[in-house]
Amino acid sequence: AASDNIWWLVRGEKPAEWESVADVQLMHVGGHAPTVMRSLAEHAEMPEAIAAFGDSVWLVFPPSAAAPHRREVLVRSVQWNPATRLHFVVPLAGDVLASLPGDGDLAGFAVDATGPWALIAASQSERFGVRRERASAAEVRGATLLRLAGNAWEQVEMPAQLRLARGLASLQDGVVVIAPDADGNTLLGRRTGPASDNPWSIAAVPLRLEDGRGIARWFNSAGRAAVSYSDAADTVLAYWRDKRLLPWSRFGTPTSPFFVSGSDDGAVLLRIVPGVDGGAPSTELARISEVGGAIGAFEKLTPPGFGAGAWIHVPLLGMIVMSALLAVAFVRSMAAGDLDEKIAPPSLPLDRRIAALLIDLAIPGVAIMIVFKVSLTELLLLPSWTVEIQRAVPSMILIAATCLYTMITEAAFGWTVGKRLVGGAVLSADGSPIIFRQALVRMLFKGLILSAPILGVIVLFQRDRRTIGDMVAKTVVADLRTDVVREADDADDSDDRGP
To answer: Which letter does DSSP use for residue 264 in this model?
Structure first.
């Protein structure tokens, strides 16, 4: 947590064989919408560390097989959009920072007002003294503290007492290095500011750094060094002041996954509550007061509602309507006289044409919902309905898949599954079979209309109910059922006239 923002990582439940599919989500809750959580980004692997300051969050990824000697560092910043009432990421892909060394263990990662800090600890064999028969304590390689200065990481000298440091926490104006002393208790080494000559202050804390119940977790709470640790069945929050550890809150340790982090006014407690009868789990958030340590009521976090604001789209819709009117004036002159009503079969009625389109959309839509695990609401959020284009990615995939599928089937057979079921087919304006070039033109304009459905109103101004794509490609969606009836009537008239 940092400022009014809270970030956490959620691992997905996708099969392990889908290595190329994003499996980790970066979730976010902001102060402007304190109960609305959003997935800001997806990653194919779990970051090794996460830290936040202000409106930004930093992620450190473990070394890869292709680059075993460096750790990639990515930073993302959020901004509040008052029109959509949602937070969004700028830039969308995040900024890539200088890589951290890949050797050693990343024991801590923190960010203060001057930027990110990283603690690369000694290897486990050195840390636990496995090599002491070959090296004295003075020769054992200790932890390395790094800070980002410009475009490179520079090493910051630490006192000898912190050589085997195991953790790192940030303050408003500096960092706290956590290390064990000779008895396994905690040493806090505090340093303020980035200047190389700034002194260290070291204090001994009467708290085991690690025991059978886990590792004490230090964090920044209202500008002070605070810690959460287990005590019997409870979790205790305490802060370090005047060389004393002062407890300020206690609560029963949740049985479900949870985490505690500091905030500007105390701390936050986030927990994952299992669903009832196998239902989806829910995420709940409670705030812990700095004064008195009272825990507020848990609030259930919900995803953002459908839609992206009321007034922000008025100019966009106006431009689309004007474009549609201009398109009508443009294509009417192009389409004049291209449809020979004596040769071409009658057009498919509008209601059956809409039914065919819905069927053709449902075929790739179901596959996308299963493969990418998106909801129907996410699938229907079109690019023209949101100013945050990343939220419209599922619908853009649906539009692309539908256009590709319909182009191939129309070019090969003259119909799609939807048109076949409602008794329609695509023909040239002169009644001949459609060719590939016409199918390609229809695909391009179909993608435009599906992205901005308002353009589909052009069919209402056409006597033969043709879309922009039909007029430009010189095609018609014919009603084959009516054509069969007409041929039968012609045959009956011929029989009535006799030989």
So the answer is: T
